[in-house]
Design brief:
By secondary structure, the chain is mainly alpha-helical. It has two domains: 48 residues; 103 residues, Up-down Bundle (Four Helix Bundle (Hemerythrin (Met), subunit A)). It is built from eight helices and no strands. Helix 4 packs antiparallel against helix 5, helix 5 runs parallel beside helix 8 and helix 7 crosses helix 8. The protein starts with 6 loop residues before the first helix and ends in a 6-residue tail after the last helix.
């Protein structure tokens, strides 16, 4: 069974450990330079370190200002919007030309109504190509804002007129109103890059 050391024995052990050591040199150091010697050393050391801290702080700001001139010009990451109509421009342009030919050729109210309905379908197909989701064109338009598409209000107005044409049998469509509506569709398609003139 291991022997345990009782507290009195452990105290004796530490007393015996330093029994042969001569600590008289500490008294000699205390007298070295007078009674305030160590206070003077502390004060001088503290002053030296404060001065060094100030010098290092000034040097840091100097280096920082000099290095700032050589910093890389990093701009915030900008999402590059993919142009959705690179390959299909010709198809959309052909469809638009066909709509305009139909509207101007016959000149009848029914031909103008059909041209507006087809222009609305073309605009809706363009919205789908932009990646906008929704069951109806109005749902897709809800995802856009006037900051993104400047002609958004005009597109809404044209789409509402198209709905009136489809759902109101006795809707009175004048040639001027039809021309303005088709111009609204054209402005939207031009803004998003489908029609290039």
């Amino acid at each position: 069974m291991p022997r345990t050391i009782s507290p009195p024995e452990s105290t004796d052990f530490f007393e015996n450990l330093f029994q042969g050591v001569d600590f008289s040199f500490l008294g000699d150091l205390e007298d070295f330079g007078g009674p305030g010697f160590w206070n003077s050393v502390w004060s001088a050391g503290r002053t030296v370190f404060i001065v060094l801290d100030i010098i290092l702080l000034v040097a840091f700001f100097f280096v920082f200002i000099q290095a700032w001139k050589f910093r890389p010009k990093i701009e915030p990451y900008k999402i590059r919007q993919k142009r959705a109509f690179t390959l299909r421009d010709a198809v959309f342009k052909e469809r638009w030309d066909f709509i305009m030919k139909k509207a101007s050729g016959a000149g009848s109210v029914d031909a103008l109504k059909l041209a507006i309905i087809e222009a609305d379908k073309l605009a809706d197909d363009a919205l789908k190509k932009l990646g906008l989701r929704g069951e109806h064109m109005a749902d897709r338009l809800e995802h856009l804002s006037i900051e993104q598409i400047r002609t958004l209000d005009r597109l809404w107005r044209a789409h509402r007129l198209r709905n009136d044409l489809v759902h109101t049998p006795d809707f009175n469509l004048t040639p001027d109103l039809a021309a303005r509506t088709l111009e609204d569709y054209r402005a939207f398609l031009k803004e998003i890059g489908v029609l290039v003139e």
